[in-house]
Specification:
Strand content: 25-35%
Number of helices: 9
Order of helices and strands: EEEHEEEHEEEHHEHEHEEHEEHEHE
Distance between the termini: 10 Å
Oligomer: single chain
Structural class: alpha/beta
Number of strands: 17
Radius of gyration: 19 Å
Bound molecules: zinc ion
Length: about 325
């Protein structure tokens, strides 16, 4: 197999050839047809996340076809199209796993972080954490569903079913999927981008936002909730100022720059500030059932696998509309 390998954070990924990984008991071998590039991959490569298993093959928005089955796997057959997400392993017995919060498992394993991921042409994965992907959408278009879609969906659920006026800070891969679901649910999306990023603002309006503007502007009306996808800590006080009493601010990213101090008055009034961490398999089942009925359309920019470094740089510099997807 060919893979783009991270040997050390802060370095470029290196193209390597390895023997094909063989599925152990309970695993499937997947021949990869597309893998999305997520901001979390960037945080792994740049060293913002400090617990990678090294060397590691990044990538956790994997779409491919089952090409071999390990012992005991009966949920899939060779030839099935499957998706592999960020949550790659849980212990199954900690208090979180036992209470339906496996996203918070004490001993988790994450794809592309501790478990080799999808910046490759083959991988193996625990079959219990893979999802069937029926439907007509192309592999490259479905890939961003596996994280941007799932985490975006979980963030939207956390923003509250009755939050009609929804702010979204940072309009990339996750936001453009969430905006489509929000519109489907008859919510109003207010999109906040980096100041002056008129390309992202136009993209947000295209995706159904009723308003788009700079993140240092105030919202045109009081919001019921806001989701922050941009990894920028100063957006937390901005979002708290934008939501009404009882409003909810959800941080959808895994890493953020430092949050500046802010007066208690902007949290007062029973405003809620929370993060969203990882996903549960139930989130995936819920989202993957909903997305094709809308249907969620993803805007992607394709890169050959060998150009993973260029794809990461495009994401780092904000020069992407929608999601970057690697094709082996
Ligand atoms: Zn656990
Ligand atoms: Zn991700």
């Amino acid at each position: 197999m060919r893979a783009m390998l991270l040997e050390k954070p802060g370095q470029l990924l290196k193209l390597v050839q390895r023997p094909d990984p063989q599925p152990g008991p309970g695993q499937v071998q997947v021949t990869i047809s597309a893998c999305g590039v997520c901001r979390t991959d960037l945080h792994v490569v740049d060293g913002d996340l400090t617990e990678p298993r090294l060397p590691i093959i990044p990538g956790h928005e994997i779409v491919g076809t089952v090409s071999a089955l390990g012992a005991g796997v009966d949920a899939f057959a060779v030839g099935d199209r499957v998706g592999i997400p960020w949550l790659g392993h849980t212990c199954g017995c900690c208090s979180y796993c036992e209470s339906g919060a496996e996203n918070l498992c004490d001993e988790p394993g994450f794809t592309g972080y501790q478990i080799d991921g999808g910046f490759a042409d083959k991988t193996v994965a625990d079959a219990r954490f893979c999802f069937p992907l029926p439907g007509e959408q192309r592999d490259t278009e479905v890939a961003p569903w596996l994280c941007a879609g799932l985490i975006g969906y979980r963030s939207l659920v956390m923003a509250g079913a009755n939050s009609r006026r929804l702010g979204i800070y940072g309009f990339g891969a996750a936001a453009h999927i969430v905006a489509q679901i929000a519109r489907f649910q008859q919510r109003e999306v207010y999109a906040f981008t980096s100041p002056g990023d008129t390309t992202a603002q136009a993209f947000a309006l295209d995706m159904g936002a009723v308003w788009a503007g700079d993140s240092d502007q105030s919202a045109p009306c009081e919001l019921d909730a806001a989701i922050i996808f941009a990894p920028v800590g100063k957006l937390i006080p901005a979002a708290l100022r934008a939501v009404r009493k009882g409003g909810i601010v959800v941080c959808g990213g895994i890493h953020m720059s430092e949050i500046p101090g802010f007066p208690y008055t902007i949290l007062w009034g029973e405003r809620v500030l929370r993060s969203v961490a990882n996903l549960t398999r139930q989130d995936a089942l819920d989202f993957l059932a909903l997305a094709p009925t809308i249907p969620v359309q993803t805007t992607i920019e394709e890169f050959p696998l060998e150009q993973a470094n260029e794809a990461l740089q495009a994401l780092r510099s904000g020069n992407l509309t929608g999601a970057a997807v690697l094709r082996p």
